[in-house]
Amino acid sequence: MNTLITLLMSLVVSFSPIWPLGQNPTYGDPFIIVNKETNRLAFVKDNQMVMEVPVATGKSEGLTPEGLFTMTVKAINPYYRKKNIPGGDPKNPLGSRWMGFDAKGTDGRIYGIHGTNQPKSIGERLTAGCIRMQKKDLETLYNQAPLGTRILIIKSNQSAQKLAIEYGALKP
Predict the structure, then answer these.
(1) Cα separation, 53 vs 70, whole angstroms
(2) pTM for this structure?
(3) Cis peptide before 65 (omega within 30 of 0)
(4) Which residues are catalytic?
(5) Given Cys at both, which of 9, 31, 103, 152 links 169, Cβ 3.0 to 4.6 Å?
(6) Residue 158: helix, strand or coil by DSSP?
(7) What Cα–Cα distance (Å) separates residue 151 from each residue in 18, 103, 117, 140, 154?
(8) What is the pLDDT of residues 70-101, one digit of tens each?
């Protein structure tokens, strides 16, 4: 009996949605997909794949949280609180833009998609948990993704297009 219960619980966990639970986007809604397997970010809007670009993610498996989140904060030339570096300063590791999301019960000020003052880091796994982008790609995304945009962070072998279809952002 215990084996059967364990098996059933394993199936439930395996086929449960990604945590935290949240409403998937609907066709046409802006939707960001960050795939930690490939270190790529895809942006879907108006039922089209608008961009797919390399990013940097967490240096260890758990640093960049996985789940379905919501963009809650946007800032131009963000201030780097950790080391008291003003926005716009070349030493600021956040670059020119910040798009914070509500991972792990935060308010969008801890985890985010942002620029970098180390452009060679893009494509690598070496951040403290955020997602880094090249300046041009970041500023394009910032201008097109409104507050409230859903962000899926996942580790998957599926293509961005398949993930966007699975999560309802693209029509099959």
Answers:
(1) 20
(2) 0.84
(3) no
(4) 114, 130
(5) 31
(6) coil
(7) 12, 10, 23, 16, 10
(8) 999 999 999 999 899 999 999 999 999 999 99
